[in-house]
Amino acid sequence: xxxxxxxxxxxxxxxxxxxxxLIMVMGHVGFGGVFDRYIHSFHMxxxxxxxxxxxxxKPEVGVGTQILKRAQRLLIPYVFYAIIxxxxxxxxxxxxxxxxxxxxxxxxxxxxxxxxxxLWFLTAMFLAEVYYIILDRIIKSSIARTIIVxxxxxxxxxxxxxxxxxxxxxxxxxxxxMGFLEIGRALKKIDGSKFATAIKSKKSVLLLFGxxxxxxxxxxxxxxxxxxxKSGWFGFVPLFWINALIGSAAYLVMAIWFDxxxxxxxxxxxxxxxxxxxxxxxxxxxxxxxxxxSKAYALPELPQNIYIKGAVIFIATTATLxxxxxxxxxxxxxxxxxxxxx
Length: 342
What we know:
By secondary structure, this protein is mainly alpha-helical. It has one domain (4-340). 73% of the residues lie in helices and 1% in strands. The chain has helices at 11-29, 33-39, 43-54, 63-93, 100-105, 120-138, 142-163, 171-191, 194-201, 203-221, 237-261, 267-277, 279-296, 306-329, 334-340; strands spanning 4-5, 8-9. Strands 1-2 form a two-stranded antiparallel sheet. Helix 3 crosses helix 8 and helix 7 (142-163) packs antiparallel against helix 8 (171-191).
């Protein structure tokens, strides 16, 4: 998803996406059950909120045209990264059932994908945006749209939690995620208010607010049951929605705060913005790179403490993915870049 509004990039949004993608990488590296439970309470909704925040209604553009553009932006990288990961899987797994991952790619892709299980996100984002575009075209009233979209999403999360019934290609996950698109769009209106502008101008207040939200999100993640959007587990559904919004808001506020206190030349800011802009590469390759470094780290003489091992693999993975994203950025062909999703 493009983190631009008009022709102007929004650094705080790129920073937020970078934070979300780095948390995802940490989750795939593995820092224990406590960390895993915490991040699953919010880190996927963040990306759908961003998409909703940046959504622009285009009544002059046909629905089919809008859907086609999203297919090019999301499904082409889905196929590309799936093929790359599948080829590595063939070499590394020595599994005689070579066809199983291919079947999963076009059916139930929330489980059993070759190496890069995170690719389910791309079909979920695509379908969530398709649903949303259609409803946005049909429902003229913004208030009615908000009520209907969020109601459908909440009901879908109840059904998934209580029935365990699943549909292929994240058809059901996307219905839940569509609700976060609508909330993100509403957030854009709030962000333009005088109150929000006044709060953002007071950096110390912004920091305190962000820290309070972080603490609240962390606490609530252990009040609710374990949640996982990919698996359709939401625990106590109202608490899932509340905490997903609190967690997303926490990292959004911290991203805005960090953006406000740093100059454009700040090296950390520049790196985070670049990660945010090339996040598709991190999504598509992170589990493959983690797997390779994990195999390299298997030497018995290396410390096997989960946190030391995790930190080493996380740093090595992030550096490698950053290098890959830098090299892809040097490619001049827009068509090739589109395959990578950048």
